[in-house]
Structures are given as structure tokens and as C-alpha cells.
Amino acid sequence: MISLSLSEIRDLTGGEVHGTQSPETVVIDGTVTTDSRECGPGSLYVARVGETADGHDFVAAAVEAGAVAALTSRPVDGVPCVVVDDVQTAFGRVARGVVDRAPELRIVGVTGSSGKTSVKDLLAAVLSSVAETVAPVNSLNGEIGVPLTVCRVTPTTRFLVAEMGARGIGHIDYLTRIAPPQVAIVLNVGTAHIGEFGSRENIARAKSELPRAVPAEGLSILNADDDLVAAMAAGLASRVQLVGLAPQADVRAEDVHLDERGRAAYTLVCPQGTARVTLQQSGAHHVGNSLAVAAAALELGLSLDQVVAGLVAAEPASRWRMEITDRPDGVVVVNDAYNANPHSMRAALDAVAAMHVAGERWAVLGGMLELGPDSDVEHAGVGSYAASLGFDHVVAVGEGARPLADAFPGSEWVPDTDAAHDLLAPRLRAGDVVLLKSSRDSGLRWLGERLAAEGGDVAATPVAPTSREGARP
Ligand SMILES: Nc1ncnc2c1ncn2[C@@H]1O[C@H](COP(=O)(O)OP(=O)(O)OP(=O)(O)O)[C@@H](O)[C@H]1O
Ligand SMILES: [Mg+2]
């Protein structure tokens, strides 16, 4: 945290101080958080009123844990506070105050329908190999997640990676005013949350708010392989670099090969030179993700050698994204059930189709949520796609996935994850690979964990970082 006094917080937010006569002596130099359990000495506790809980009820707990002040929408006894009309807006202004007090900080914004967290993790891994870097915990990418991340910046932080998600027009624009990017990455325009946006064009408009926020001296990194993203180049103030497989891309991949686990190796071609890159993440979609990372890191002054070393060394960081577990009995579980939309479903199916499999390929697929009126068609499209890739079995889980089952000849449909487990457990054999993929709320990630822990005496579950959700696409 960059220290702020309570009087500075008052000035940043336009709020009123309560509970102290001398706000300039109350100094916040600890964690800034909306969770009272995360407070410690010097913390600022941000009291949100959420759908299920009122943060004001936890002010006492925050103080107990060490918080020295609170940002609230009403005065609370027993703690110095700044009282504001709208806590969320005020929190954004505090975060912007932090950015303005860190003149050396370089901010990279990352958006897209799929792959934001994957790119955020990879970029943070590469950048932190050369300088202090702050990046979101998990997938914190919204109006609370971005300020939470920004407030972790310290006086010695050089780079901030900000994941930015949108559920509507104007959302990313708002986030860029909190964390103004010098570098923007736009990965893709899919159909995630198309129900809320209405059309892919509207999704593209929402995502284009990120490169539009980059100043003339900054850089927008756009996916050359996605028409709607590449088209964002027109009319931008910033410089533009295209990344992808397309020959016109400024930073591109040639000679892409996938190993037996679907991990890519490719030749990185960029203005700084060429180099061979091998990735530890499974799935060809990580080629494009890593090209965007390379372009951003090179723009921020890393050498090609540093970039390549960082990419090669980076291990998969966030959970339930192509998380591979080798069971003692020889079954391989691929848990990619963090979330799903038609685009990332195909990417996951492609990745497993590329793996070398001695036994049979299973795809256990649940519903993709928030697809609006096209939902049935999109599910059916994924079923046909799995069939075209030659999967041996599809198990469709839950009502939403019925059209998917209908589109895959010989598929099996089960109502829930327990039924899916009962079907799979006795039938998986050594050499089989089983992919789990669904939207977050369809819960297949837990089925994946259960399956991963079975198949022998030795527990094969991977290490779990702490989880806090709150993502939007
Ligand atoms: N470039 C890509 N294209 C398609 N799918 C991808 C891409 N990168 C990652 N994925 C897949 O998409 C899913 C979500 O990945 P990730 O969490 O990185 O995306 P996100 O954009 O942060 O998602 P969210 O909107 O839920 O925060 C994962 O299953 C991952 O394997
Ligand atoms: Mg994310």
C-alpha cells in the first residue's frame, strides 16, 4: 500500500470524516480490503452493502483485526471513518489516488471474452522476474476487484497487471479511469454473456473501451486472428501491435507444435528477433495468449531473452484451467471447469483432442450459462464440435446441456454431477483422458476434483491456492 491519511481519503472521495478530530494523523499503510478477515495493522476497511450482507456489520471485526479506519456510507461508532454516498465509487477514487501517487508505475490492462486470467498470470510471472509486479488475486476484474488490486501497489511497484471484465457498455471505460493503462491487451470477442450484451458487436464495443483509453505514447496489443479485435485498430490514439498466427501480425508464432500433453512449442517472431518458446500450459490457445504477453513485456522494456525465459519458466498459476492430474491408476483428469463459454469450450476440446491418449477420450460437459436465446444452438454446436474431433464419449451434465447431448451421437445425459460421478467412476480405465468443462455455477470443477482424488491410494490432487471469486468476462 502507498500510505494515505484519512484526510487524503476524504479529499479523494469528497466524503465526510467521522470519529476523529484529526484525520491527517490517521494513516492507512496496511491492506485495503472489503473483507474484515483480511484486515491487519494499518488497514482501511471498505464497507460495501452487498446482496446478502451489509459490510457495516463487520466494521467492529475489522477494527479488532487492526483496521485504523473505514470507508462507509453511514457513520459507525468506534472507528474513524470517511462517510460517502456511494462506497463503490469512492473506493475507485481511492484507488485512483494510489495510482496518482505512483508516477513510475506502468499499467497493463487485459480484456477479452476468454483468457484474461491466463494472460494475467503469465504476464505477471514474466514481469515479476525483473521487477516488483502487482496482479489480481484469482480473477478479480470488476469494479471492486480492480481497486482492491490497485491498492496493493507499493512505492516500489513497477508494473501493475489489471484484468478488466465487462457485463455491459461503459464498464471497462470506468475501470480504465481507476487504472489508466499505458498498454492494453485485447484477446478475443466471444459470446460470453451475449444475453446481456445483445450481440457480438456490442461485446466488441465494450472491449474496445480498453485500447481507446490508451494514450498516444502507449501501445494497444490486438489479436490479429480475431476479426473483431483486429478491427479495433482503426481510430485508436495509441500505437498498435497485432499478435497472432496471421502473417501480418507484428508479434507472431511460427512452427507451432503441441507435445503429448497439448503444450505448445513455437518460434516467436517479433521486431526484436526470433526465439523458440515452450509453454507449460496445455492448449493451443495459450500460443496467442503468450504472444500478447510477449508483446506487452517487450513494450515494458524487457529483453527478448528475459521474455522467453519468463514464458518458459511460468507454471500454470490459477486453478481449474486445464489442470491436469495423473491418477495412480493411469487415468488423466483435465479439469478446465473454472468457467465456460462456446469459445473456451472449443479451446478445451481442441486441447484434449491434441493430447496423445492411449485409452479413450471423455468429455464431461455441463451447461454454459448466460447465453440468452442462442443457448440451445450454442450447446448443440459444442456437441457437434466434440463429435467432429473424434471424442469417444460425451457425458452431458444438467438440463442446460441437453441440446449438447442431442448433438453427439451416443452421448449420455445425466441430471447432476453426482450422477456423472456414478457413471464415470466404474468406467474410467488406465490411459483414458477425461475433460471436465462447464460454466462456474454448473459445478463440474468439484466433480473434477473428486475424480482427480480417486483411482488409487495416493492422493493426486494438485496444490490449491486460496480462492476468491468475483469475476466477470
Ligand atoms: N485465448 C483463449 N481462447 C479461448 N479460450 C481460452 C483462451 N485462454 C484461456 N482459455 C480458456 O478459457 C477459460 C477461462 O480462462 P481464463 O480464466 O483465463 O479466462 P477469463 O477471461 O479470465 O475468464 P473470466 O471472464 O471468467 O474471468 C479456461 O477454461 C481457459 O482454458
Ligand atoms: Mg478471469
UniProtKB/TrEMBL annotation:
The keyword Cell division applies. Coiled coil: none annotated. Pfam families: Mur_ligase, Mur_ligase_C, Mur_ligase_M. Residues 32-76 form the Mur ligase N-terminal catalytic domain. Keywords: ATP-binding, Cell cycle, Cell division, Cell shape, Cell wall biogenesis/degradation, Cytoplasm, Ligase, Nucleotide-binding, Peptidoglycan synthesis. Residues 321-440 form the Mur ligase C-terminal domain. Pathway: Cell wall biogenesis; peptidoglycan biosynthesis. The keyword Isomerase does not apply. It catalyses: D-alanyl-D-alanine + UDP-N-acetyl-alpha-D-muramoyl-L-alanyl-gamma-D-glutamyl-meso-2,6-diaminopimelate + ATP = UDP-N-acetyl-alpha-D-muramoyl-L-alanyl-gamma-D-glutamyl-meso-2,6-diaminopimeloyl-D-alanyl-D-alanine + ADP + phosphate + H(+). It is found in: Cytoplasm. ATP binds at residues 112-118. Belongs to the MurCDEF family. MurF subfamily. This is UDP-N-acetylmuramoyl-tripeptide--D-alanyl-D-alanine ligase. It comes from Terrabacter tumescens.
